[in-house]
Amino acid sequence: xxxxxxxxxxxxxxxxxxxxxxxxxxxxxxxxxxxxxxxxxxxxxxxxxxxxxxxxxxxxxxxxxxxxxxxxxxxxxxxxxxxxxxxxxxxxxxxxxxxxxxxxxxxxxxxxxxxxxxxxxxxxxxxxxxxxxxxxxxxxxxxxxxxxxxxxxxxxxxxxxxxxxxxx
Amino acid sequence: xxxxxxxxxxxxxxxxxxxxxxxxxxxxxxxxxxxxxxxxxxxxxxxxxxxxxxxxxxxxxxxxxxxxxxxxxxxxxxxxxxxxxxxxxxxxxxxxxxxxxxxx
Amino acid sequence: xxxxxxxxxxxxxxxxxxxxxxxxxxxxxxxxxxxxxxxxxxxxxxxxxxxxxxxxxxxxxxxxxxxxxxxxxxxxxxxxxxxxxxxxxxxxxxxxxxxxxxxxxxxxxxxxxxxxxxxxxxxxxxxxxxxxxxxxxxxxxxxxxxxxxxxxxxxxxxxxxxxxxxxxxxxxxxxxxxxxxxxxxxxxxxxxxxxxxxxxxxxxxxxxxxxxxxxxxxxxxxxxxxxxxxxxxxxxxxxxxxxxxxxxxxxxxxxxxxxxxxxxxxxxxxxxxxxxxxxxxxxxxxxxxxxxxxxxxxxxxxxxxxxxxxxxxxxxxxxxxxxxxxxxxxxxxxxxxxxxxxxxxxxxxxxxxxxxxxxxxxxxxxxxxxxxxxxxxxxxxxxxxxxxxxxxxxxxxxxxxxxxxxxxxxxxxxxxxxxxxxxxxxxxxxxxxxxxxxxxxxxxxxxxxxxxxxxxxxxxxxxxxxxxxxxxxxxxxxxxxxxxxxxxxxxxxxxxxxxxxxxxxxxxxxxxxxxxxxxxxxxxxxxxxxxxxxxxxxxxxxxxxxxxxxxxxxxxxxxxxxxxxxxxxxxxxxxxxxxxxxxxxxxxxxxxxxxxxxxxxx
Lengths: 168, 104, 602
Hints:
heterotrimer, A: mainly alpha, extended, C: two-stranded antiparallel sheet
């Protein structure tokens, strides 16, 4: 069962990600991103990280994508124009990608994985909100507070950036 | 490649592929908005790798990290889009190759 | 107390020079007085030194410390042996007389404060050379004397010829000093000391070889420059551009003989090599005749005397080369008296004829300036070596030293013939006959301040032959007047008067016309063509090198390289965010790879 779910959602994720990169219409891209995020949430569930899956859907797919869509609407972003393919950049990406894969295969031998397979039920509730909350508010509470400050700063920054200059 | 039994390696390979796709998007697309969406893909790839390692090693701590990553990503997207809007108001374009004045 | 007298002698004139230069320049009368009194003070001090004790032996004087390393010692010390004491008395005495003379000679000159300051500086430096106890401090004073000479020759700054002559004097001296320094360094390297007192012991047992000869010749180079011997003699006649007191003091009596004095000081080194001694003797011998020939066709009264100075110094140099330093010092002393006298008299003549120096424009001065002419005649007799005047005794002792070297004897005796010839030529043309010039017609004697020094010097020229001067001069003095040198030299000297009398009595223009003598054997032209042009082309080469290599390649080149590399690196900043992102991620991959290989991430 675990395998089936994994392969289905993995394929979905990869296909939607590729579609995001390939299509030119911004709305198409936004929808593909939403699909990718949902596939990602599903993969979180296969990994028994239920709270995170929920956070992913609520925050990422719910808030961040809404922001994107608002901006698309606000700026009236048009379909990206056809252009001759930027061969230099394509070659660069392929080169970087190929090199990364090659390097990864080399590095992978350095990290002996235990070969454990995915078995649902083994994590014993490690991904629940209670467990996460315990860690968050005890061990990582300073970081948590810092994140709060970060969000405050972001809010202030956004407000400042989007001010229109007073028409003089 | 084992199809029946899923190991940590599968998840990490998936995460790497997703990362490379996101990288391609950042480098190859012209519109800043799409570039930002590809950035989200990069972050998601990292999240996936973190959670997978945490699950297979029995550690709950990576999930806390993912929590923070998602939060920061949200803040980053909001600010990034605000900057995008500000640039668009002045330059009337969001093409990455036309916004290249920070040069020699 | 007596031990500090040498410092008194040395520093009084320096004090005078410094105070005039910095404070008393606007007060000429006070400057003149200060300078003269300081010189007199030095003279008194040297007399005290001279007659203290028995006059023998070295006075122990504490030295001013300077360089004291392991193995090398060079302090500002004083070596007050009989040689130094006699020479100090001579220098300060003659300088004092010249001071008195200059008061009158320059009384109308507006810059006479500067003159007396420079004169005091000279007296200090010359005494420094005389009293020095090692080659290094002597060399310092050697250079100071050169500076004083430069300042004094070029005293009349408005005359370009004077400035050029001063430059020439200093530069030619510098050439000699180059050899001198090499000699000093060689002496230190080979003998381990530069102190004169240590030399006699250090040279014992040293075998003569090329090193010793080279060192000796190097030291002799210093003498060539300072005492104006061939080939560095060219500056002395041109130094006559300076005021006559300067010519008499520096370029006749004292400075030019510093070279001879130095040779005597380092004689232990020179004596080690027969080659060195013979070279010195033959250079001296050649130089007795060479300038004497040139003087036969010169028309400026001071230049004639300058060439005769060259010849007389050559006698001294030859004597040193022949191993007779006592004779050299004897002649040095008598020459100081009569040559200074001759120059002062010439100055009196020039002054009386209103700055005229050409002998063909004078004439008939015997009746108008009798005293001057009389002392001039006395000086001439001394110069030509006619008994019983002092010059005869000193020149004869030198001739006696040439007994075993017939070539040198021949050269120097024939030089004596020509010396008599040109001196009588000069006297006949300048003093006898009819005045050829309005100024000569109204010539008159100078003031008492000019007459008294001349009188004193005349007296000294007369009687210096009778004193047992060798007692005060140290060194050995060959008492054997071998008879044949005495007679032959005397005959030749007297014979020189005859053709001069025949040719120049009542002559209104020069019957002889020998151009290569008149043009000084074209040596100046030779130097100009060969040396000066070579120096100029070398200078142009150095300039080209500096322009192309240093300024162009190194300076501008490094600028070009910096700018080009900057331009190259600038291209990295393209402004394209995606390029930056790609490079960034590439860097991150490399970093991870490197860390993994280092085993850090395990």
